[in-house]
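Hi all, long-time lurker, first post. I run a small reading group and we've been trying to get comfortable going from sequence to structure in the token notation. Rather than ask abstract questions, I figured I'd post a concrete chain and ask someone more experienced to write out its structure so we can walk through it together at our next meeting. Sequence below, copied exactly:
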Amino acid sequence: MSTGQRTGSIEVRHLRAFLAIADEGSVTRAATRLRVTQPVVSRTLAALERHLGVRLVDRSTHHLALTSEGVAFLDKAAAAVAAFDEALDPGRLRGWPLRLGHAWSAFGPYTTPLLRTWQQRHPETPLELLRIDDRTAGLTRGEVDAALLRGPVNTPGLVTEVLFTEVRVAAVAADGPLAARTSLSLADLTGGAVVLNTVSGATTLDLWPPDARPAATLTVANTDDWLTAIAAGRGCGVSGNSTAQMHPHAGVTYVPLDDAPPLPVLLARRDGPGHPALPRLAELAREIVARERPTRP
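-- Answer (accepted) --
Happy to help. Here is the structure in token form:
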């Protein structure tokens, strides 16, 4: 008996089988996870590949791996399954929440005004702020309805709007020689290592001229590890000013950067139908920025 919703000749169970294989790296383990037999999983995957007209999984080695087409299809399959499960969750039939993702610093100084004003005006639609360590804060995987992102976002299938820009700051060890400076330049950071969050961060080596880049880099996967590495004196970092406000750390001092370009803060959503409250969220975000932005003397 079918356990999924049909889309042509393909059902949600086909996507679940593919996702299980991708996660487990094995048809046998995927079958155990799905509580079906191995031949059923193999036939389900083959049917999905025939429908798409591409090979999703490379079966030439003992440990299965996704093909390039499989990698490209992975986020789409995950988003489709997440949307299906969300639609059938009885706990969400009333007060359909609007999920707003971020990888770090959320909406900066506007975070609390946004959450409070939304609750006052739209109590029937809970606004859930979720931190997800991912370049699109879970947006492409269907884990959130919209996301607050920083820096350029070139992910296909997303629509973005710049809400404001923030100045960049250097993050240095609180007991290091740079912490006493009133301001720094990018060149001041090139003598040692620079800590880069390669999963969700907005800083890359392209921030420096090709002939004047840092002597070394240290890569981390989230803001917490980024702060820990800097506090330990393993390198310095570059981020937006909101990071200094939203992520204070006893071992880290934030110093203004004189010559770094501003960092755009974006509201992103998937291109296509989405949560019906998304236009209201975008409108309120613009209003909050216009209302709360400090005026220059």
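A couple of things your group might point at:
The chain has three domains: 6-88, 91-165+264-292, 168-261.
The two ends are 70 Å apart (CA to CA).
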